[in-house]
Write a structure and sequence with these properties.
alpha+beta, Aminopeptidase, 2 domains, eleven-stranded mixed beta sheet, globular
Length: 219
């Protein structure tokens, strides 16, 4: 993604997918930035991400933004991490990419790390697969190439039960630490008990909240 500055605000743009993301914009800055976006990026999807800060529903409704995600921020560090070993979890190989992509695009089409991103940025988005009798029954996706070089972020975990989820979260977290990260964050759906328990079981603790809003098409 390309970083530009609009009205003093950092804006991330993926031109090939007509996608824009803005993190933690202050409510007072939203109207001016919105008008700039309408003028210069009509038809783009806009995602607004707020971590540990609230913006009024009226301000977001005024630009047609709807809730995309309502999450708790969970974090772990090497000293707090409790690995959950599972021999059936293995890194995604390119030969298995098509099978993984079909699952990912079906079950997590709105994930920030699309299958296209993962393929084009191979190595930035490590994926871990869990198989049973040759079938993929779960996977975890983590981003390790962030602007914050000390942090990794788990973007997506798809699993059929809590034990599988623990194994996948553990593998993704271990990958980040092996790659020199000092901290891993994971945004879990506020209402998803399995997501929360799977993260907590390997040492993640609550550290705040995150709410994402989406405008499907800027106009």
């Amino acid at each position: 993604m390309k970083l530009i500055i609009l009205n003093g605000i950092e804006v991330l743009i993926e031109e090939s997918e007509k996608y824009i993301q803005i993190n933690d914009i202050q409510e007072k800055d939203l109207p001016v930035v919105w008008e700039t976006l309408r003028k210069n990026f009509p038809g783009y999807e806009l995602v607004l991400c707020f971590r540990d800060m609230a913006v009024s529903e009226d301000a977001l409704a005024s630009i047609g933004a709807e809730v995309l995600e309502d999450c708790l921020t969970m974090k772990t560090i090497p000293d707090g991490f409790m690995p959950y070993k599972c021999d059936e979890v293995a890194p995604l190989e390119k030969a298995d990419f098509a099978a993984f992509a079909a699952l990912h695009d079906r079950y997590n089409p709105d994930c920030g790390g699309t299958s296209r991103h993962i393929w084009e940025k191979w190595g930035d988005w490590p994926v871990f697969l869990l198989r049973q009798d040759g079938e993929i029954i779960g996977y975890a996706l983590i981003l390790i190439n962030l602007r914050d070089a000390a942090m990794g972020e788990i973007f997506c975990v798809w699993a059929r039960n809590l034990e599988n989820r623990k194994a996948l979260v553990s593998a993704a977290t271990m990958c980040a630490f092996i790659n020199g990260k000092n901290e891993v964050i994971y945004m879990v759906d506020r209402d998803n008990v399995d997501e929360y328990d799977g993260a907590a079981a390997v040492g993640f603790k609550e550290a705040g909240f995150y709410i994402g809003y989406r405008v499907e098409s800027i106009n």
